[in-house]
Amino acid sequence: MIRRRLRRILLLSRRALSTTTYTARVVHSDKSGRSISVAIDSPSSLPISGHLPRQPRHHLICHVTNLLRSSSPDPYISVSDFVSSLDSPLTTLEASLILKSVKYPSEGLRFFDFLSDLGNFKHDCCTYNRILHIVSRTGDVQLVCSLLDRMEKEGIKGNVATINILIGVLGINGVEKCVKLVKKWGVKINEYTYKCLVQAYIRARDVERGFRVYEEMRKKGFKLDIFAYNMLLHALVQADMADNARKVFDEMKMNNCKPDLYTYTILIRMSGRIEKGINPDVFTYSILIECFGKSNKVEMARELFDEMFRERIKPNIVTYNILMDCLEKKGEINEAFRVFERLKEQGLSPDLITYSIVEKLESKKIRVFRERKPGRETGWIVSLLS
Fold this sequence. Notes:
extended; two-stranded antiparallel ribbon; 6% strand; 4 strands; disordered C terminus; single chain; 19 helices; 386 residues; mainly alpha
């Protein structure tokens, strides 16, 4: 029993320590066999690899950042002296984190060039991605392209993050170049890459190609986020591609991406384009009222409900149920009852959902409280107050 436990401990030790092997010897055991003493021999040599990742030295990053932000006429003299005094050279990860703390793109470029002049430092994909991301905020396409050329001349291969940054900056004009780089670098594009492509085509008003990219990413099991879904839906509606917009909306819900207010606003525009003289239908109003209610904007939901009558659109039982439910959750009991009376005046028959809402309203109208009272059979007495 004890030996089996010992073997298990040694097995777990080997797994935790990867290729390092430890040997254990039983040096003493009592007569009952319930306890033993074990001596573990240290390995003759521990594996040392220069490829093991080193944690960034945060004190170093903070110190260099503070030097760059100092009021000194030329902070790079102090930075150079400090970096030269390090026992171990600056890593690309540390350099990338310092670049991240730089406020302005011009300062980032200067520090990037400073790193290039260091004898014991060499840029890699990590630092190039960081400077490309910083420069991309300026929208300077020529500068981004010059950095990319410099990267390729140095023989540095980019990764999927590089491709995503380039698509975001270059747009559809750079898609062909990005495709070539994907093949050249052997990059496997991800979900975010497809999102960048969809947005690039939409911004260029090439909605059809954007939708084709969306279809391709969907087949590969990728999904958009709420921002990208709304952007695509809006573009499809503007391009009079209503059928595709409905398809995207259905797939959005299937992917558990919850529509927001802007999503429903797009849908109501889809159902009724004012410039075409088409009015939204009762279904569109109902989903928009529900959306405002769930967002705790009951006043807007009520205004839409009143607007339906002004537009001569007759609410159905679903519309009434949605509004009553919103008012009940908001605590506007009397207003909810008035809507219920209006429902009956309109000649609609309440359904099970209507009655369940009315039951909730009645329970709130008659307050129920429990009062503790000692007793043999029960310790509670329920009193009803109107």
